[in-house]
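testing teh design pipeline on a random one, pls ignore if ur not involved
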């Protein structure tokens, strides 16, 4: 296997950042499941991103950003695979909802005709910018993930008998991209290690990221992608790791400077989606509002909670089930009540929270969940 890696304002939110985790998430009883034995809604699913989507690509890299050891995967049928969760990732949940035959394999394990059904290229610690996360070791940045995808395109072309047939197949497949968090927490907000915060203002940096992101999506389109969902960044200023690093902002329960930067990036991401849909009439791009699902609109959230019959059961939103506000170490003893935690480790959601994010991405439960349409609508285009 040829493998490409990169080494070769928000004070008005204050406590609402965290409180709204409980206000805006729904009880699992009202969520979607694939009908037993349902037909796949798309012929394949291709995934690009970071640790929120990685299912094992980092296992073969020289990096500290790995999750292929216990207790990671404690609630996943295959055990620790490289997924940064106790169970499923967000993209695993989406795979289920699309009624696909099993979870999508990593690029390093996908073989032969399996690539027709999809490949996961995501890499923990990676970002839009090549240098992002390099202090952790090797990563596969977005442009390198695209190069690996082009390798897959060539494989599909060979299997199906030419580039035209490969394009036709991929035009019908689902694509998701979730990246950018590390460009902030493992780049911009690490001024002693990276220069970006000295070279750009927050707004300028977001603009640079979106410009590079857009160029990579142009490449993805060129190689067949026509149904593309982009995950917005979540409230990483509320993550246990960032709270441990900086402490909560005065009058807040989160690191407001980080969340303010995320808001700026997401606003530009929405605008990019609109531009892509305008430029590529034969393709559909959509934005998945992870931040909005997390902080919510209290009025909308209240109506949803009333309709769903109560709270989700989450009780701990400022510490990871494994490791608290520190890392989840090998053979560590995690919490027993994992469904009560939003974070599995110092950065990554639990299976329970991924389940809710995935369902709301697939079938929007509030007008602000997606823009302009949800993944179920995208699949049917």
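output:
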């Amino acid at each position: 296997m040829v493998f490409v890696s990169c080494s070769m304002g928000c004070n008005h939110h204050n406590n609402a950042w965290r409180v709204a985790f409980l206000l805006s998430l729904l009880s699992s009883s009202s969520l979607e499941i694939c009908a037993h034995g349902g037909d796949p809604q798309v012929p394949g699913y291709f995934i690009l991103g970071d640790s929120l989507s990685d299912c094992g690509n980092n296992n073969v890299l020289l990096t500290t950003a790995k999750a292929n050891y216990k207790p990671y995967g404690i609630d996943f049928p295959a055990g620790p695979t490289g997924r940064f969760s106790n169970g499923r990732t967000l993209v695993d949940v989406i795979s289920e909802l699309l009624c696909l035959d099993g979870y999508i394999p990593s690029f390093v394990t996908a073989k032969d005709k399996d690539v027709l059904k999809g490949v996961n290229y995501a890499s923990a610690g990676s970002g839009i910018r090549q240098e992002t996360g390099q202090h952790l070791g090797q990563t596969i940045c977005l442009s390198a993930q695209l190069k690996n995808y082009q390798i897959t395109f060539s494989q599909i072309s060979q299997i199906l008998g030419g580039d035209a047939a490969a394009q036709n197949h991929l035009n019908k497949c689902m694509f998701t991209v979730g990246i950018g968090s590390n460009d902030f927490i493992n780049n911009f907000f690490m001024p002693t290690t990276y220069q970006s915060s000295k070279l750009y203002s927050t707004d300028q940096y977001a603009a640079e990221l979106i410009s590079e992101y857009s160029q990579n999506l142009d490449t993805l389109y060129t190689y067949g992608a026509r149904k593309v969902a982009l995950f917005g960044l979540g409230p990483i200023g509320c993550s246990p790791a960032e709270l441990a690093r900086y402490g909560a902002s005065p009058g807040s329960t989160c690191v407001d400077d980080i969340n303010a930067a995320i808001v700026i990036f997401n606003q530009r991401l929405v605008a990019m989606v609109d531009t892509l849909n305008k430029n590529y009439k034969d393709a559909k791009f959509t934005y998945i509002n992870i931040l909005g699902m997390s902080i919510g609109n209290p009025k909308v959230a209240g109506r949803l909670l009333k309709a769903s019959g109560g709270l989700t059961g989450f009780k701990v939103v400022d510490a990871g089930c494994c490791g608290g506000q520190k890392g989840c170490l090998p053979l560590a003893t995690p919490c027993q009540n994992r469904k009560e935690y939003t974070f599995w480790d110092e950065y990554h959601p639990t299976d329970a929270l991924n389940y809710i994010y995935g369902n709301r991405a697939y079938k929007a439960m509030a007008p602000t969940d997606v823009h302009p349409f949800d993944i179920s609508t995208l699949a049917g285009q």
